[in-house]
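User: Here's a protein and a ligand (NAP). What would the complex look like?
Assistant: Let me lay out the input and then the predicted complex.
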Amino acid sequence: MKKILLIGKTGQIGRELIKDSASFDFEIISFNRNKLDVSNATQIKEKLEETKPDILINTSAYHVLPQCEENPINAMAINFIAVKNMAEICNDMNIKFVTYSTDYVFNGKKDSPYLENDETDPLQVYGLSKLAGEYAALNLNPNKTLIIRTNGLYGGKTGSSEKNGNFVLNIIKEADGKKEIEVSSEQIVSPTYAGDLSKATLKLLKQENETGVYHLVNEGLCSWSKFTEEIFKIAKIDTIVKPVVRNKIIGQLQRPKFTALSNTKAKSLGIELPSWQDGLKSYFNFLNNNEDES
Ligand SMILES: NC(=O)c1ccc[n+]([C@@H]2O[C@H](COP(=O)([O-])OP(=O)(O)OC[C@H]3O[C@@H](n4cnc5c(N)ncnc54)[C@H](OP(=O)(O)O)[C@@H]3O)[C@@H](O)[C@H]2O)c1
């Protein structure tokens, strides 16, 4: 049985990986941030020496977009330098390194789902710092790095600690007591359920020789306003969704218009994710059950 050391046990994807690993025949261990901080390279090396995993999975990120613009040094420290250090240490210790990346490495000027080898061109510090992390990992652990780009991630009962929830939980809160809410119809995305991403990640890890960049998102694409309509339909919320165009720039921050991703490489290996509508249904099934979340 292969052993995984996971960074980010309290995160949206991290929690799902912990739940799913055994059914894919992986042992998984993880530490809280106070015991293993990605910005501390010595700590990473020590934990890898102590636990001797076959695979290191990094789910940590500095990913609140306005904060990345305000504190680019922090964004670079977590999304680039820490990833670079982990890749380097994994290369020295012959450990497979898996790290998550984002649709925001693209400029959004395409009008069909982005392929793994499409040209990158980030529009803001977040995308730039994640792309720098991708380059560093691929350069410093070239034979054993897997970059997984995903999009519009949601999962867990409380969502992301860093981002204070997720789109699904936050839009439900925002609609509370309102007749109508405005939601962007301009950005086109592939919203992805962390439960589906986790299983697809573990399937990919079963294919031991796979390395390089992979896209893993729920199938299909939609605008945030269409996604909201589907959320309200499932949750039986009768607030009206008013689609609005906000012209890409909110404050000083540029967001790419079209960032649906295509799972081309995963599909060629027979790894398929459910549609975004089915992903959303699975999330509501999870939210409505009484399963505890530690
Ligand atoms: N969320 C999205 O919409 C989205 C979209 C595209 C790509 N992604 C990428 O997908 C990945 C996972 O996202 P997610 O939504 O699952 O993230 P998340 O829910 O915010 O979880 C991040 C995890 O990393 C931990 N962490 C943060 N900083 C750390 C540090 N310095 N040292 C150690 N651990 C640290 C957090 O711990 P604490 O609980 O202690 O903070 C948390 O457990 C990220 O790489 C992100 O860039 C996300």
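Summary: The pocket of NAP is lined by residues 7-14, 33, 37-39, 59-61, 63, 78, 100, 102, 150-153, 160-163 (CB under 6 Å).
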